[in-house]
Design a protein that fits this description.
The complex is a heterodimer of chains A (283) and B (265). Chain A is built from 12 helices and 2 strands. Chain A has 283 residues and is an all-alpha fold. Chain B is built from 14 helices and no strands. The chains are: A mainly alpha (283), B mainly alpha (265).
Chain lengths: 283, 265
């Protein structure tokens, strides 16, 4: 059996994005954006939860910092700002992996999506971008504003904010590709919950979500810097803090772009072999 | 009743063990994820040796007591989580009401997640690690206090999960906000309560008594005093507080059941 969409699952990045179909992906993203905006109770609960956890960590930082001290390059206000910005980044996937693709693989609904005449990767990417953009604009920014009002979290300069926006864009792509790869393991494992849980903790730990990488001992920090996760949380947050400036910002962008390419490529390759597997099972 | 419970749970465990690899991966996954959370906490102590006057090993006592009991509560009461929510959405709770058994019992017996024990194992390891690095004067009373505290903690967390589920009777979906008190509560009481402001301290001591079950007990074990004047002796009241809180949760459940209007087609 030949899937119409399977040609688009090739390794070529260009075919994944397929410029002429840009309008289609825009519409998919728009619908995901609207869908996310409907669940008002969900995002209010999300904001409350994120703000609660951020406040909790701020109390810990306030208890350990004495006035004027700087630890590992972080002042008390830096630590607080970092806490709120990383909680806000949960909206783009800093804290939890999505489970939706995995569920369609388990239920078998994935077949329908694979046989549609569009890029499977592009479809899920647009959905994720639409949903996460909404979450970032509403959940993320409201969470951060709470941090600004109650804990004096920092408001960056305009150039830093612009660099942050670019970094977020790249972080979205890296975060999506990683989530896609982990979800895709459901094709090979009957129950990939364990893999998802382990992949999730690797993300939150090594991205600097649980603790800024600056507070890691040097050897552990080096490991974290070899992994893709810092591109999702730590790098954008450090740009927001104003800790990365000038050439360091460009290096951060380059690193994020590199991981975007590498993970997207890996995701495509996995998808290709997964599709072959589906064909065998369905044949 | 107990025999029936054990039989139902036995069947649950056997079915979970059918997918051996998945089971172990999930157990390890849960232990690892809470483990790395503790590593992050320990790394913070690498940069700041004391938090609110407490050293890492002392905080380990707080963490261990809370995490172990939370894991136990999750293990036994996950029936009130996703499976119950699904029941509400499909309207299959009707079936539960027709059976000649207490609805609370049926929901509780409908799920038993052995893999959640991973959190308890990890919490217990941290507690043991902490005890090795501390000189705790192990009197008989203190030895009794530990299991009593764990049981009280488990009861409080179970009550919270039940309260979250009961809200389903009105909202159909378990409101995410309950996570603030379960996962958030567990994270909050991993640090000494004294570092928080009055509002949070009082909320987690007297309204949602998650802090009541580990903080006074840790004070008693470590022979510390609370800067805000909470006597360590109240640790012995924890079972009473936990039982009261659980009773409130059960009452709330009853009200919820009486207000149940079925959904579905």
């Amino acid at each position: 059996m030949e899937f119409p969409g399977s040609s688009a699952t090739g390794i070529s990045l260009l075919s994944a994005v397929r410029m002429r179909n840009l309008r289609l992906y825009y519409e998919i993203a728009l619908r995901a954006f609207r869908r996310a905006s409907i669940y008002r109770a969900a995002y209010i609960a999300g904001i409350l939860t994120n703000a609660f956890f951020a406040a909790l960590r701020c109390f810990v930082y306030l208890a350990v910092y004495r006035a004027g001290t700087i630890v590992a390059g972080f002042s008390a206000n830096d630590a607080i700002t970092y806490t709120w910005v990383t909680q806000a980044l949960i909206s783009i996937g800093a804290g939890w992996l999505p489970w939706d693709l995995m569920q369609t693989i388990r239920s078998g609904d994935v077949i329908t999506d694979l046989s549609r005449p569009w890029s499977f990767y592009g479809y899920w990417l647009s959905r994720s971008l639409g949903e996460r953009c909404f979450n970032l604009l509403l959940r993320g920014s409201v969470t951060y504003l709470l941090g600004f009002f109650f804990f004096a979290a920092r408001i960056p300069r305009l150039t830093e904010a612009l660099a942050f926006v670019v970094a977020i864009g790249l972080a979205l792509l890296v975060s999506f590709a990683y989530g896609f790869i982990v979800n895709l393991t459901a094709f090979w494992l009957i129950d990939n919950t364990g893999v998802m849980i382990i992949a999730n903790i690797l993300l939150t730990f090594f991205s600097g979500f649980l603790l800024p990488l600056a507070f890691f001992p040097p050897w552990l920090r080096q490991i974290a810097q070899l992994l893709p996760f810092q591109a999702i949380t730590s790098l954008p947050a450090e740009i927001w803090l104003g800790h990365l400036t000038g050439p360091a910002v460009w290096r951060a962008f380059a690193l994020q772009a590199g991981w975007t390419l590498a993970l997207t490529l890996l995701a495509m390759l996995m998808l290709q072999s997964a599709v072959r597997k589906v064909v065998i099972q369905g044949g | 009743m107990l025999a029936l419970y054990l039989r139902l749970i036995g069947a649950r465990i056997r079915s979970q063990m059918q997918y051996k690899l998945s089971f172990w991966l999930e157990l390890i996954g849960f232990a690892l994820s809470t483990g790395l959370e503790f590593v992050a906490l320990a790394l913070l102590f690498g940069k700041f040796p004391v938090v609110g006057g407490w050293h890492l090993a002392e905080v380990g006592v707080l963490y261990g007591l809370s995490s172990t009991s939370f894991g136990l509560a999750e293990m036994v009461s996950r029936g009130f989580d996703a499976p119950f929510e699904l029941m509400m959405q499909r309207g299959s709770f009707d079936g539960v009401l027709t059976r000649p058994l207490n609805s609370f019992f049926q929901i509780m017996a409908s799920e038993f997640q052995l893999r959640r024990f991973g959190r308890s194992i990890q919490g217990a390891l941290v507690f043991l690690y902490a005890c090795r690095h501390l000189t705790i004067n192990w009197t008989l009373a203190r030895m009794i206090l530990v299991p009593l505290t764990l049981l009280s903690g488990m009861t409080v967390y179970m009550a919270l999960i039940v309260i979250g589920a009961t809200m389903c009777f009105w909202t159909i979906k378990t409101p995410e906000v309950i996570n603030i008190f379960t996962f958030g509560g567990d994270a909050l009481v991993s640090y000494p309560l004294s570092i928080y402001n009055g509002l949070i301290r009082n909320l987690f001591l007297w309204v949602v008594p998650v802090g009541f079950v580990n903080y006074p007990a840790a004070l008693l074990l470590l022979q510390r005093t609370d800067p805000h004047g909470l006597p360590a002796g109240v640790a012995w009241a924890a079972p009473l507080v936990a039982a009261t809180f659980f009773a409130v949760a059960c009452l709330f459940w009853r009200v919820g059941v009486s207000k149940y209007t079925s959904t579905g087609s």
